[in-house]
Every structure is written in structure tokens, then in C-alpha cells.
Specification:
The complex is a heterotrimer of chains A (about 240), B (about 350) and C (about 290).
Chain A: E1 2-13, E2 16-27, E3 31-35, H1 42-50, E4 57-62, E5 65-66, H2 72-77, E6 80-83, H3 95-103, H4 109-122, H5 138-151, E7 156-160, H6 168-183, E8 187-191, H7 195-201, E9 204-209, E10 212-218, H8 219-224, H9 226-233
Parallel strand pairs in A: 3-8, 3-9, 6-7, 7-8
Antiparallel strand pairs in A: 1-2, 1-4, 4-5, 9-10
Helix pairs in contact in A: 3-4, 3-5, 4-5
Chain B: H1 2-5, H2 14-34, H3 37-62, H4 70-87, H5 93-118, H6 123-142, E1 150-151, E2 154-155, E3 162-163, E4 169-170, E5 173-174, H7 177-200, H8 202-212, H9 214-218, H10 224-250, E6 252-253, H11 265-273, H12 278-296, H13 300-317, H14 322-337
Antiparallel strand pairs in B: 1-2, 3-6, 4-5
Helix pairs in contact in B: 3-7, 3-10, 3-11, 3-12, 4-5, 4-6, 4-10, 5-10, 7-8, 8-10, 11-12, 11-13, 12-13, 12-14
Chain C: H1 3-34, H2 41-57, H3 62-83, H4 92-114, E1 127-130, E2 133-136, H5 137-159, H6 161-171, H7 173-178, H8 183-205, H9 216-230, H10 234-256, H11 258-275, H12 280-288
Antiparallel strand pairs in C: 1-2
């Protein structure tokens, strides 16, 4: 079943076409990675799916509903959840309150407290609950934001470079975590440029180049695609 | 319920804080027994402005919207009370007039707020659009001296302002003097406690989230515009409550209560006090009103110069507010003197939790 | 419609347009360059007016007094920038409060020191007739000055070395600094120009109105709404905003009087921000690319 359908979407900023005629589908239950060199239009496409700005052309469907004109909060209410590239948390509020704000729309009372503890433990933040979120390390803030995105119990989790600024160990743990979510039935769309991380998690991959879809297919197929290696990795980096 | 009284959004909490609160409340309750009625009336006058300050603290400190329009809604409500108290015949209908006046201010806030918030106005533009609206109302009312400007028997009277409306009355009891004082005191306790519960509720959680990071709040599925509008309407409604009480207290209102420099006063009180905490705003505003009134007797201009200097000094020296800063300092000293340091169970926040 | 009617129409438009441009341009420059709103803008206008009247009473010719008044306000602006405003470039909301505090201090001190009003100097006489109508020459001088201000700003910002550096700083202050622009000095000069233009506004309107320390309030609503509608660009924002607002204002003034004109203008602004949140200049600048 198709969960997200992007149909002929373009986005122009003044004279610059950042995304041009992109078609993309994300199936329910998969981990789909969106890759491409810098300036390929990954982040723009991500922001279009999230609803941070409207596309110049085209249509975006979520769960068969046209959401092209909906604002981000309405998309979130439909079952999306979003983690942006730079850590975006409530800096002046305690970690625990950050999680509570994410949780309170869905659960309440004792269940909320339990869920709060579960998430804090899952994210390795159990001892940091009373700290201000702004006082956490960069990596911890990324975790906290992932935790807030998870608290919404989304059908679809959208992650924009979730491992930016993380150490290799943290990156690996994040990858394992993503696989756990997926096993639990969650669909994930991940924008990433770290190929090691993509190999760890991806089931299907879409390659963007110069604002257009360059290739798409299974992880194996993409890894063996010479043309992808050429534009994305540079020939010298191909090891199979 | 109790959990809401002592939540994360209010700094003063715990048994010691509420003990202090009770002491102050009892002192305020028995004050009229020891003071002459003139002083009690003056005290009631300071208290009526507190609502406007608390409303601004909610909008600015909690929701992150710097509204310069407190006197706009003060004026709308104050004039509405004046008109209604005259048109509806005064007497016990003044209570209805009070309620309707506050509703009028909230309605006006909802309309103006809708256009600004849905138009994406924030930051400094929020301030100057609200101030522009405030000044235009003041200019407009200043030009209503002619006899054609009346609603029923109520003349607007231009710069000289409206007068001759009944004060709040229940049956044969005029709410004046010490009765007015107690009325205000009860209202302040109710509003203060209600606001504490509101900011510590789940709605309050979203409101502070909106201040901290509106995009993140939106991406957690909250329509931040609705929460901002709610805070704006409540905050402006509290300014309206002050306005109607003011008109009732003095049985007059003039455009100078709306325009400059009046519009700057709530900003000075709340900035000086510490906008991010209701208790600091309550205490600080009262102190400033008291000081201002004392100096005004000698020279109003000098009092206003002092207010301007305090505003400038606040942003230069203590942008978070003087009262809040001093409160935190005292709390830190107190803890140190007790030899405690920060106990384990307490939040490791920057602020100690007693003011 | 006769030629005289047409001229009368233009005259009224020119009058409102001049008022908007002269009162808003100083505020718009400071906002465009530094992203802050100077709440003491009205007090710089008041300063220009008082210096003009003071000098004229000392026997200085009006035009010279007006120029000196604008320079005086500009110099005071540089001093204010140095001691107060420059601390707040990273905190625009606090700059609003600080300048408002300053504004309170200045107006109320003036009331304490010089009292509520001083002897005015009267509008320069001189009028001319077109058809059945008589017009004041001075009002047309004001219009000419407003146009001259726009042309002057165009030359300063588009044709001089300072203008290039200023526009670079406006686009990206950190980059301009890295490339050797002395951004601190550019900000100080920009603030000075803004204050000087406010002073000029006060100087030009001084002969036409009663001088009181609180006179700045007469100008700030117009300057605020023009900047809100215009956005961050003086030439592409403030000027078209002034044309647009002058049209609305003129139509309402003619049928309903001054105060309704002002209220109508405010309503128009509130509608516009709903439709164009970033102001007219965002549309015009985008088209211009």
C-alpha cells in the first residue's frame, strides 16, 4: 500500500528551480532513504512533504488524501511526524517538559507518565530529565527531538539527516533504533548523505540529482548502479 | 487541580511560597481596619491596574507576543463601561455593563489578533501594529468633543472624556471605598490563581512551547496560531477588566488613558518586574504603581521620566526583569544560608524554585 | 473634470504623500539596515522642529535653520546609537523597549524644562491660484522635499561607496564584516541618517504646527504603518507604500475627514498584513529579480 505519493512536484525560488517534476512513492512499512549530493534538492523536497512551503506545481498525497495545501500541523495530525535537520527543541524548557508537550495531545494521566519514562530511557536521557533542553549536547538534542517525534506515535516518521553531528557510535545506535521502529510497523522516510548509515537502514532508495529523480530502487540495486556512484560518490569511492 | 497551581511555568512554589502568599493575603485583608478610607481608595486604585499587567505577562512572558496594545483594550472596555452604565440606566445593571465591557475588549482583541496572527505578524511588528491601533483610538476619541458624538445619552466628550456614569453597584450597595478594595482583592486572587492554573495546564504547556519554538510546536501537531490568539484574547481581556474597573472607580475616562505615555506604562511594569513570571509581575507592578503615584503628587513628568529611565535600565542591565532577578538572588542566598545547595529531587534548572 | 480639479486632486495627494515619506523615511532606513524600530523616532522629529524654531527666533533664515536642525538631529542620532542602540542589534525587541524608554525620558524632560508649548513661527506665506482654488506654496515645497529625499536616498544607497557597503551589510552583515566593511561605523552612519531625516521632517513641518514636546506622536502612526506596509526596503517599499496609503487616505479624508482617513489607513494596513505578511517590498523585490 502506498502511504505517501508525490506527483509531479516542482518548487521554484525566484529564478532557481530547486525541485523539478519529482514523482516519489513511499510504501507503508518500508524504510525509504532519500539521497543525493549537496544541492540535489533533498531538503527542499523534505520541506515540501512536511508542508513548510507549498509546491509551485504538483500534488502530495498522504494515505490517499491530498495534503498539498495543508499546513504542517494538519499533516502531523494525520499521522506524520517530523525531525528537522538542525536540532529543534524547546531550549528554555526542561527535557521532561519537552517530551510532555509532545505526548499530551495523545495520552494523559498515568499512561502519560509511563510513556514519558519509557521514552526518556529509550533515548538515554533518563538522568537528564530536569535539565533545560538547551543545555544538552548537540547529539542529545537530536535524540530528544527524535523522542518528541516518536511521542506522537506516527504512521510515518520523516527524518532529515537525523545523524548530523552525532559520533559514529551514536549514529549506529540511531540506525538500530530506526530498525526497531520499523519492525514495530512504522514507515520511515529518511534524508541522509552518510552512505554507511543508509546501508545500515535502507530498504528502498531514491537518488535526487539537480532537483530531479536520478534513480530509485532497492538498496542493492542502487549500490550497484555505476551512474549513481559517479554522481554521488565519485568513482574512486566505489567498493563492492 | 493542585498540580496545576505549582507547575513548571510558575517559579514561586512549595509550602514556603504559599505561606508567604497567605501572610501577604491576610495583611491585605486586615489593611482597611488600620488605614483611613482615602488610603484604602488609593490602594484599590493600584490594584485595578494589576490585571492589565498580568495580562501582558501572559502574552509577552509566556506566549512571546509583545503587545503594545494593553491601553487599547483598556480604553475600549473603559469607554464601553461608561456608555453602557449610562445607557442601561446604571444601578445593578453596572455589573452587566462590566461583563459586557470585558467581552467587548476580548472581541476587539479577537478581530485584531486574527488579522495579525494569521497574517504572520510577530516580533517587533506585533508591537508597532498594536501601538498604531492604540494611538489611532486615542486620536479618534480625542476628536469626539462635538455633541454629534453620543450613544444614547452618553456623550464621548473628546479630550475631556466621559463622565457621570454610575460606579459598580449591587442593589443599594455602591462598590466604592473599602468595598471596592475587597472586591478588587478577591478578583486579583481569583485571576492570579486562575492564570497560574492556566499556564501550568496542558494549554499553557503549548503556549510556552509556541514562545520557545513555534515551528517545533507546529510540528507536534498544534495549530500555534490558535494558541497565540487565545493568549492574546485573554491577556487583552484582562486589560479590558482594568479599564472597566478604572471607569467605575473614578466615574470618568479620558483618551489620555489610552494614548502616549499611558500605553508605555504596562510595558514598564512588566519589563521591570520580570515578564516570564506571574508572581514577579504582580509584586513588581504593585511596587511601581505605588512609587509612581507617590512621585506623581509632586510632578507627573518627573514620575514619567523615572518610568522611562527604569525601562531603559531594565533592558540594559537586567533584561529578564529586576524583581525576578532579585527574587532569584534572595532564593539562592537563602539556600546557601541554609547550607543546602541544590537538593537532589529539585530540578537542576537555572532558577531556584522559590521566589 | 477641469484642469483645476485635476490639480487640486494632485495637490491633496502630494500633501499626504509628502507627510508619509518625510515622517517614515528615517524610520524605514533604520529598520531596513538594522532590523530595529526606533521608538524615539518621534522625538527626533520633535528635536528637528524645536531646533528650527529656536534658530529662526535667533534670526537665522528658515531654510538654513531647517538644514541645521536636520544635521543636529542626525548628530544626536549618532550619539544615541553609540551609547544605547548598538548594544541591541542582536536583540531587536529590547531595542524597541530601550528606545521607548528614551522617548519617555526625552518628552517628559522637555515638558519639565521648556513647558508645554513655545512660540511658533507661522507658515511661510505665499499662495497661488489654479482656477477657483487657492493653494499654499509651502505645501508644494514639502512635496518637492519628499521627492528630493527619495532621490537623495537613491543616490546615497545606489551610487556611493558607502551605499555599496551599506547594502552589503544589509544582505549579510557577517560576510560584509569578513570582507573588511566596518559594519559598526555603517550602522552608526545609517542611524544618523535616519535620525537626520526625522529631524528634517520636524524642521519642515515646524512652521505648520503648534510645537509641543509630545508632537512626535502626531507623526509616528503614519511612519509606523508606512514601514509596516513597505517592509524592509526604503526605495522599493516605503515609496510605493506611501503612494498606496496616500491614495486611501486622500479618498477618505475628502469624504469623511482626517480622523476617518487615519482609521481607514490603519484598517487597510491590517488587511494588507493578512495578505502580504512581508510588506509590499517583498512582492516588488521578488518581481525585480
Amino acid at each position: 500500500m502506498t502511504l505517501v505519493e508525490v506527483k509531479g512536484v516542482s518548487k521554484r525560488f525566484g529564478g532557481l528551480t530547486a525541485v523539478s517534476g519529482v514523482d516519489l512513492t513511499v510504501d507503508a512499512g518500508e524504510v525509504h532513504c532519500l539521497i543525493g549530493p549537496n544541492g540535489a534538492g533533498k531538503s527542499t523536497l523534505f520541506k515540501l512533504i512536511v508542508g513548510l512551503y507549498p509546491p509551485t506545481q504538483g500534488q502530495i498525497l498522504f494515505d490517499s488524501v491530498d495534503i498539498t495545501q495543508q499546513r504542517p500541523f494538519a499533516r502531523v495530525q494525520r499521522g506524520m511526524s517530523i525531525k528537522m535537520q538542525a536540532p529543534s527543541v524547546f531550549r528554555e524548557l526542561p527535557v521532561r517538559q519537552n517530551i510532555q508537550i509532545a505526548l499530551q495531545g495523545h495520552v494523559s494521566g498515568a499512561e502519560r507518565d509511563r510513556e514519558e519514562e519509557r521514552l526518556l530511557t529509550l533515548l538515554n536521557l533518563a538522568t537528564e530529565g530536569e535539565k533545560l533542553a538547551g543545555a544538552l549536547s548537540h547529539g542529545q538534542q537530536q535524540w530528544l527531538e527524535i523522542g518528541m517525534a516518536l511521542a506522537l506515535r506516527p504512521q510515518l516518521l520523516l527524518l532529515d539527516e537525523p545523524t548530523a553531528g552525532m559520533s559514529p557510535e551514536e549514529t549506529f545506535r540511531t540506525g538500530e533504533l530506526i530498525k526497531t521502529f520499523n519492525t514495530g510497523g512504522m514507515t520511515l522516510l529518511v534524508v541522509e548523505h552518510d552512505m554507511a548509515f543508509v546501508r545500515q537502514i535502507a530498504q528502498r532508495v531514491t537518488v535526487l540529482h539537480l532537483g530531479k529523480i536520478f534513480a530509485h530502487g532497492s538498496l542493492e540495486a542502487i549500490l550497484q548502479d555505476e551512474k549513481v556512484a559517479e554522481i554521488y560518490l565519485g568513482k574512486t569511492h566505489v567498493h563492492h | 487541580m493542585l498540580r496545576l497551581l505549582d507547575g513548571p511555568q510558575t517559579l514561586g512554589k512549595g509550602p514556603k511560597f504559599w505561606a508567604c502568599f497567605l501572610v501577604v493575603l491576610v495583611a491585605a485583608l486586615i489593611y482597611p481596619l488600620f488605614a483611613d478610607s482615602y488610603d484604602v481608595g488609593n490602594f484599590a486604585y493600584f490594584l485595578l491596574w494589576i490585571f492589565m499587567a498580568l495580562g501582558l505577562s501572559l502574552m509577552w512572558g509566556y506566549a512571546g507576543m509583545l503587545s503594545f496594545g494593553q491601553t487599547l483594550f483598556f480604553g475600549i472596555s473603559g469607554y464601553t463601561y461608561g456608555v453602557l452604565a449610562i445607557v442601561m440606566g446604571g444601578g445593578s445593571t453596572t455589573i452587566v455593563a462590566l461583563v459586557l465591557s470585558v467581552c467587548m475588549a476580548m472581541l476587539a482583541a479577537a478581530i485584531l489578533g486574527y488579522f495579525m496572527i494569521w497574517g504572520g505578524i510577530s516580533g517587533i511588528f506585533f508591537g508597532i501594529v498594536t501601538l498604531s491601533a492604540t494611538l489611532v483610538l486615542a486620536f479618534f476619541l480625542g476628536q469626539t468633543a462635538g455633541s454629534e458624538w453620543h450613544i444614547g445619552a452618553a456623550r464621548l466628550n473628546g479630550f475631556n472624556g466621559m463622565q457621570g456614569m454610575d460606579p459598580l453597584t449591587v442593589g443599594s450597595l455602591d462598590i466604592e471605598g473599602s468595598v471596592l478594595y475587597y472586591f478588587m482583592l478577591v478578583l486579583i486572587v481569583v485571576v492570579y490563581v486562575a492564570l497560574r492554573m492556566f499556564v501550568n495546564s496542558s494549554i499553557g504547556n503549548v503556549i510556552v512551547a509556541t514562545r520557545e519554538n513555534p515551528q517545533r510546536a507546529e510540528m507536534l501537531g498544534y495549530d500555534v496560531r490558535k494558541y497565540q490568539l487565545l493568549a492574546f484574547v485573554i491577556g487583552s481581556g484582562l486589560a479590558g477588566l482594568s479599564g472597566a474597573l478604572y471607569t467605575s472607580w473614578g466615574q470618568f475616562i479620558t483618551p489620555s488613558s489610552i494614548g502616549l505615555p499611558a500605553a508605555a506604562m504596562p510595558i514598564v511594569w512588566v519589563a521591570f518586574s520580570g515578564r516570564s513570571d506571574l508572581t514577579a509581575t504582580l509584586v513588581g507592578s504593585f511596587l511601581l504603581l505605588f512609587g509612581f503615584q507617590t512621585i506623581t503628587i509632586y510632578s507627573q513628568q518627573a514620575a514619567l521620566v523615572l518610568m522611562g529611565a527604569l525601562l531603559l535600565a531594565t533592558v540594559m542591565v537586567a533584561p529578564q526583569g529586576f524583581v525576578l532577578g532579585v527574587g532569584r538572588l534572595i532564593a539562592v542566598r537563602w539556600k546557601r544560608w541554609r547550607g543546602g545547595g541544590v537538593a537532589k529531587t529539585e530540578p537542576a534548572r537555572l532558577q531556584p524554585d522559590e521566589v | 473634470m477641469s484642469a483645476a480639479d485635476l490639480f487640486s486632486f494632485f495637490y491633496q495627494f502630494a500633501d499626504v504623500f509628502a507627510f508619509l515619506i518625510l515622517s517614515a523615511s528615517g524610520l524605514a532606513i533604520v529598520f531596513g539596515m538594522m532590523g530595529i524600530i526606533n521608538m524615539a523616532h518621534g522625538e527626533f522629529i520633535m528635536c528637528g522642529a524645536y531646533v528650527t524654531v529656536g534658530l529662526v527666533n535667533l534670526g537665522v533664515p528658515l531654510a538654513l535653520a531647517q538644514i541645521l536642525a536636520a544635521i543636529a538631529a542626525g548628530l544626536i542620532g549618532v550619539v544615541v546609537e553609540y551609547f544605547i542602540v548598538r548594544r541591541f542589534y542582536k536583540r531587536p525587541l529590547d531595542s524597541l523597549l530601550a528606545t521607548w524608554g528614551l522617548s519617555l525620558i526625552v518628552t517628559q524632560s522637555m515638558l519639565l524644562i521648556v513647558g508645554s508649548s513655545i512660540r511658533g513661527i507661522g507658515t511661510p506665506e505665499g499662495s497661488f491660484a489654479v482656477g477657483d482654488y487657492t493653494f499654499s506654496t509651502y505645501r508644494l515645497v514639502l512635496f518637492a522635499c519628499a521627492v528630493a529625499v527619495l532621490v537623495g536616498l537613491y543616490i546615497i544607497f545606489m551610487k556611493t561607496r558607502f551605499g555599496v557597503l551599506a547594502r552589503a551589510t544589509m544582505q549579510n552583515a557577517a560576510m560584509a564584516k569578513a570582507l573588511g566593511a566596518r559594519t559598526g561605523r555603517i550602522y552608526a552612519i545609517s542611524f544618523g541618517i535616519g535620525a537626520g531625516l526625522a529631524g528634517l521632517c520636524g524642521a519642515l513641518y515646524a512652521p505648520t504646527m503648534t510645537l509641543i514636546p509630545t508632537m512626535g506622536a502626531t507623526f509616528i502612526v503614519e511612519s509606523f504603518v508606512t514601514v509596516v506596509v513597505g517592509g524592509a526596503n526604503v526605495l522599493l517599499g516605503t515609496a510605493p507604500a506611501a503612494i498606496f496609503l496616500a491614495m486611501i487616505r486622500m479618498a477618505l479624508n475628502a469624504s469623511y475627514g482626517q480622523i476617518i482617513g487615519q482609521i481607514g489607513m490603519l484598517f487597510a494596513v491590517i488587511m494588507i498584513i493578512r495578505i502580504l505578511p512581508e510588506g509590499l517590498s517583498s512582492v516588488l523585490v521578488r518581481r525585480g529579480r
